[in-house]
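Hello,

Our lab assistant flagged a job as stuck in the queue for most of the afternoon. It eventually completed. Since we weren't sure the result was trustworthy after the delay, we are filing this so someone can double-check. Below is the sequence as submitted and the structure that was eventually returned. Let us know if re-running is recommended.
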Amino acid sequence: MTFSVAMSGPIHAGLCDHLLRADGQEDLCLAIYAPSTGATRSSALVSEFLLPEPGERAVHGNASFTGDYFVRAANYAGSRGRGVVALHSHPGGVGWQSMSDPDYDAERSFARLVHESTGLSLVGMTLAGDGSWSCRRWDPSGAPEHGESVRVVGDRFRVTWNDRLRPVPTIGETQIRTVSAWGEAAQASMARIRVLVVGVSSVGLDVALRLAATGIVQVGVMDFDGVEIVNLDRMIGAATTDIRLARSKVEVAARLMARTATAQHPDIVVHDLSTCEPAGLAAALDYDIVISCVDRPWARGVLNTIAYADLVPVLDGGIAIDTFDDGEMRNAVWRSHALVPGQPCLVCNGQLDAADIQTDKLGLFDDPEYIRGAGANMPPRRQNVAALAASVSASILTQFVSLTIAPGGIGAPGPLRYALSTHTLEHLDIALKPRCPFEAATATGDERIPLTGSHATAQKIQQVRRARQARPAVRVRRSLSGLADWLADR
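-- returned structure --
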């Protein structure tokens, strides 16, 4: 299992203020982390830092801890079920930092103490003078495992990569015009970001294709549904053959993405899963950014949770089409938003009713009797057309570029709303709500609000699709058997 560290923008800023001294000397401090465990990656989420009290550290060109400082931090972390992070600075350093012998000896000497007090590994981090981070975790025997990245999550998404574990992808001729938009350094970082698209119908499929064409090496797609006849006016590239062969949406998406990918060694990952189930959640936690193209409250609730609890930015968007009683269009409105610490969650920005999460989890939105009785309280209807779906995917992709590239130094713009009838783009000024349970759970990791469970609807759809996939093979075998018998009679 790979390892990484993540922290919010305010935590990063506070640590930089302490560790990067005006006098140019090295400094240090301790912090607390919560574990976040995915299917193949574990992350240490730095949730708070404990500045040294008088006499707990010495600054003398280099810097050193005292045992009392570590004991205080370990006892505090253990009482909260958290781990300890030891941080120090290399003011003259640039990029990912290696460890000096004194760094190695200092962290190793406290690794066993921390593990015995907290039950979790000591995490070590180094801050370079340019604001880059490096990380490692120590097993109780005193051996370090170096991480692959450190992520800082806020209106801008900054990643420091361990080039040894996550090498810079080769830029080929197919990416020349892409690189010309933001430069090789930005492309080298963006291309290494693991991006998961959840829901690959109209909007999600378009987003996944364009991410692959941009040169991002690893793009995952997650959906439990199959291609149906009603999808063909929106899933551009899907065909009637996909319906006859009962292919999954993720299978079709992967085929189309393979044709458009410009990375030298693209890694297209298929997850025939529901994000509402534990396996789907674990898979999502392996990614650096998740793009939500789902329309059900339960799935959106799960993704809303990990955006804050696990510091995995979620870019969400959707469209609502309003029609008159005679069927003519009145208006269409699409929205997009980046769910990151410091910006409102889906509940706070009015795009998700928390009560609907449990209703959907109980399967009531699939119950005809409940639907008849719910009336106007039901979630938005599902009208969508290819011509307008492209506008939603474009809005989500611009949020992605703003978050990762920050054109002009400006990151994610906040919630956006576009009204088609008046062609009006609005920046929605939505205040953060101090009592929001999702935002209050920032950087809690595995202690997140528990929302996953058995997803009966997804399981039923998958079973029906797999049964349909098996039938054509049976018919072919029977036909060949009949042909053999006919030839034998001759």
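-- support follow-up --
The delay was a queue issue, not a problem with the job. The result is valid. The CA atoms of residues 27 and 260 lie 48 Å apart. Confidence is low (pLDDT under 50) at residues 474-478.
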